[in-house]
């Protein structure tokens, strides 16, 4: 299948139209027309090769919502016309202990990422994966998610990364009514952490260096804002949290937050990929506190999250853009100039743009 996307051809080049070839349908494949694709901070990091493992040409995009156009002969879950979604991974070994537990994101052989990866398990030779900044996508049935009725299709896309990345630790650490949850950072991930924790019944505190985000935090469902640069306020908040979700996507100092954890409580990192400022072990040892990391969730948990959001009416706050505005969106993303997630209306990507 020939289609069109937008690709980075090098770390220094802007994204530009790119001809994409999708595989012919296999028996367990679902073909979809991409309707909307979210713009994740990861897309920017990968396009710029900030982490050192980017492959070019690269078609980013792992927050994908679309309409099924065709299915393979063995597909039973979906039919043409269904609304489906695809997140950060499109395959895994399906045989290891983690995959059998529904934790495909922790596949022992490594899951196949939606873009900037190779189809290791299903294709010989391994073909590169291209993401959702494209008009069409083909994915194996097991990695397509059903979009439940009640969700606004134009706002669903960020749930496939920002949503599940914050929902998974909330579920792992059993957040519910009475849980005391802190959220560090109020960007794409942070605003979803606030909405989801509040929907689960938690008492939610946003942590920010300045007080100017208080109105936004409260509007998103937080109970309060804690100014992390206010030493007296931080001292009063000591031992006050069962879980802190740190969504900051750059190197930063986590030490100020460690004493806020109660005994046996956890600070979980979901934003920064790479080094942090050196943490002190003193508050960890004296309070039996923990630092943990968490990636996305598995397929079953992601479907659970979508169903939960439909039931509770939880949607990301998004700004819709055209496909040809993606390079400006990347520049704005670097400046944190978006509330809180860009979503590309893929109807704006037309075949005449291909080159």
Q: How many beta-strand runs?
A: 17
The biggest sheet, with number of strands, parallel, antiparallel or mixed sense and barrel status, is: 7 strands, mixed
Query: Would you give the CATH topology of the largest domain?
Result: Quinone Oxidoreductase, Chain A, domain 1
Can you count the helices?
11
Shape: globular
Rg for CA atoms = 20 Å
Termini Cα gap = 16 Å
β-strand percent reads 25-35%
Q: What's the helix-strand series?
A: EEEHEEEHEEEHHEHEHEHEHEHEHEHE
Please name the CATH architecture of the largest domain. Alpha-Beta Complex
Give a summary of the structure in a few sentences.
This protein has 355 residues and is of the alpha/beta class.
Q: What does the model show?
A:
The model has no long low-confidence stretch (mean pLDDT 95). Helix 4 crosses helix 5. The protein contains eleven helices and 17 strands. 24% of the residues lie in helices and 25% in strands. A hairpin with an 8-residue loop joins strand 1 and strand 2. The protein has two domains: 217 residues, Quinone Oxidoreductase, Chain A, domain 1; 131 residues, 3-Layer(aba) Sandwich (Rossmann fold). The protein is globular, with a radius of gyration of 20 Å.
């Amino acid at each position: 299948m020939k289609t069109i996307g937008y690709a980075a051809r090098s770390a220094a080049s802007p994204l530009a139209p790119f001809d994409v070839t999708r595989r012919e349908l296999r028996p367990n494949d679902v073909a979809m027309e991409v309707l909307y694709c979210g713009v994740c901070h990861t897309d920017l990091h990968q396009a710029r090769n900030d982490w050192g493992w980017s492959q070019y040409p690269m078609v980013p995009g792992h927050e994908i919502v679309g309409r099924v156009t065709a299915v393979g002969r063995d597909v039973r879950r979906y039919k043409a016309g269904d609304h489906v979604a695809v997140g950060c991974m499109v395959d895994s070994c399906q045989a290891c202990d983690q995959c059998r537990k529904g934790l495909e994101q922790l596949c022992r052989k490594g899951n196949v990422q939606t873009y900037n990866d190779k189809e290791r398990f299903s294709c010989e030779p391994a073909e590169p994966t291209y993401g959702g900044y494209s008009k069409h996508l083909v994915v194996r049935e097991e990695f397509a998610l059903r979009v439940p009725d009640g969700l606004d299709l134009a706002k669903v896309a960020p749930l496939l990364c920002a949503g599940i990345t914050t929902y998974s630790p909330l579920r792992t650490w059993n957040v519910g009514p009475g849980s005391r949850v802190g959220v560090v950072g109020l960007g794409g991930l942070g605003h979803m952490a606030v909405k989801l924790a509040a929907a689960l019944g938690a008492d939610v505190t946003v942590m920010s260096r300045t007080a100017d985000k208080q109105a936004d935090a409260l509007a998103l469902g937080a109970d309060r804002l804690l100014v992390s640069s206010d030493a007296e306020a931080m001292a009063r908040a000591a031992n006050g949290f069962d879980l802190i979700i740190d969504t900051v996507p750059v190197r930063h100092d986590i030490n100020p937050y460690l004493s806020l954890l109660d005994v046996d409580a956890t600070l979980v990192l979901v934003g920064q990929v790479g080094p942090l400022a050196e943490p002190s072990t003193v508050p960890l040892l004296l309070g039996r506190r923990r630092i943990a990391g968490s990636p996305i969730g598995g397929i079953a948990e992601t479907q659970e999250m979508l169903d939960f959001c439909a039931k509770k009416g939880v949607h990301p706050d998004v700004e819709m853009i055209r496909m040809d505005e993606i390079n400006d969106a990347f520049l704005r993303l670097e400046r944190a100039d978006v509330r809180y997630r860009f979503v590309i209306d893929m109807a704006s990507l037309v075949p005449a743009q291909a080159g």
